[in-house]
Automatic annotation (TrEMBL):
Main location: membrane
Domain ABC transmembrane type-1: 63-273
Name of this chain's protein: Phosphate transport system permease protein PstA
PROSITE patterns in the cross-refs: ABC_TM1 (PS50928)
Compartment list: Cell membrane
Listed transmembrane segments: 12-38, 58-88, 100-121, 127-152, 250-272
Keyword DNA-binding in record: no
Keywords: Cell membrane, Membrane, Transmembrane, Transmembrane helix, Transport
GO molecular function term, any single one: phosphate transmembrane transporter activity
Membrane protein topology class: Multi-pass membrane protein
Length: 282
C-alpha cells in the first residue's frame, strides 16, 4: 500500500515537472515580449504607415495585409476543407484509394511551410500568372491549412455517435439530409475550433508569403487581390534582419501585435467550443 502511494506521488511529481518544463519557457517568452513590446503600443503605432526607413511610424499596412490574408485563406480553405472531410467521412468507401488520400493528408500536415511557399511561387505566381499578390498568398496559405481543417473536421464528424445517423436513416432521411441536419450541427464545435486554429497557424507563417505576396515596404494599402501587401510575420523578419538601428520596442511591439492576433483567434476558438458544447444533449 505504501509502495503504491509512493509510486503515485512520484508519477505526479514527474508529470508536474514535465508540465512546468513546457510552460516555463513559453511564459518567459511572453513576459519578454510584453515587457519590451508594450511601450511601443499606441494609436499611432497601430494606425499609421512606417516612416524613416521603417524605423518609425506604425504597422498599419502590415496589419491590414495580414487581415486580408487571413480572410482570403478562410474563404478558400474552409469550404473545401469541410466538404472534403464530409466526403471522406460520410460518403467514401474504405478502400486503398481513400487510405492513400488519408495518408497523403497526414503527410501534408508535416510538410515544411517553405515547401508550400515554393509550390505557391511555381503554381500561382508564375504558372497561373497571378504574380506576387494577395490572391497568390491566400491560395498558398489555404493549401497549407487544408490538412489541418480536414483532419479536425473528420475527427469532429467521427465523434458524433453512429446511433444518431441510424435513427435519422430509420426515419426516412437521405444521407445528405442526415449529414446536414444531424451530423454537422453536432460536429460544429470541433469543426470551428480546428478551423480557427488552422487559420491561426497561417497568420503566423513567413515562408509561404515570402515568395507569394509579402512586400518589403509599401506605404499604401492594397486596393486589389492582385496587389502585393505587407504582412506582420515578414515585417518582423525585415525589422530584425534588414533594417539597421531599429528600436527594440518597435520590433517587440510588432511581435506583440501578431501574438495578440493569434491569441485572440485562439480565445475565439475556445469560446465557440465551450458555447456549443453547452448546447449538446449527449
Amino acid at each position: 500500500m505504501i509502495d503504491s502511494k509512493l509510486k503515485e506521488k512520484a508519477a505526479f511529481a514527474i508529470l508536474l515537472a514535465a508540465t512546468i518544463i513546457v510552460i516555463a519557457p513559453v511564459a518567459l517568452i511572453l513576459a519578454i515580449i510584453l515587457i519590451n513590446g508594450l511601450p511601443a503600443l499606441s494609436f499611432e503605432f497601430l494606425f499609421s504607415i512606417p516612416r524613416d526607413g521603417m524605423r518609425g511610424g506604425g504597422i498599419f499596412p502590415a496589419l491590414v495585409g495580414t487581415f486580408y490574408l487571413i480572410v482570403g485563406t478562410a474563404l478558400f480553405a474552409i469550404p473545401f476543407g469541410i466538404l472534403a472531410a464530409i466526403y471522406l467521412n460520410e460518403y467514401a468507401q474504405r478502400n486503398r484509394l481513400t487510405r492513400a488520400i488519408e495518408l497523403a493528408i497526414i503527410n501534408l500536415s508535416g510538410v515544411p511551410s517553405i515547401v508550400y511557399g515554393l509550390f505557391g511561387l511555381s503554381l500561382f505566381v508564375e504558372f497561373l500568372g497571378f504574380g506576387a499578390s494577395i490572391l497568390a498568398g491566400s491560395l498558398t496559405l489555404a493549401i497549407m491549412t487544408l490538412p489541418v481543417i480536414i483532419t479536425a473536421t473528420r475527427e469532429a464528424l467521427s465523434a458524433v455517435p453512429r446511433s444518431f445517423r441510424e435513427v435519422s436513416f430509420s426515419l426516412g432521411a437521405s444521407r445528405w439530409q442526415t449529414v446536414r441536419g444531424v451530423v454537422l450541427p453536432n460536429a460544429i464545435p470541433g469543426i470551428l475550433t480546428g478551423t480557427i486554429l488552422g487559420l491561426s497557424r497561417a497568420a503566423g507563417e513567413t515562408a509561404p508569403i515570402l515568395f507569394t505576396v509579402a512586400a518589403f515596404y509599401l506605404p499604401k494599402l492594397p486596393t486589389s487581390v492582385y496587389d502585393q501587401a505587407m504582412a506582420l510575420p515578414y515585417h518582423i523578419y525585415v525589422l530584425s534582419t534588414q533594417v539597421p538601428n531599429v528600436s527594440v520596442k518597435v520590433q517587440y511591439g510588432t511581435v506583440l501585435v501578431l501574438v495578440g492576433m493569434i491569441f485572440i483567434l485562439n480565445i475565439v476558438a475556445s469560446y465557440i467550443r465551450s458555447y456549443f458544447r453547452k448546447k449538446k444533449t449527449w
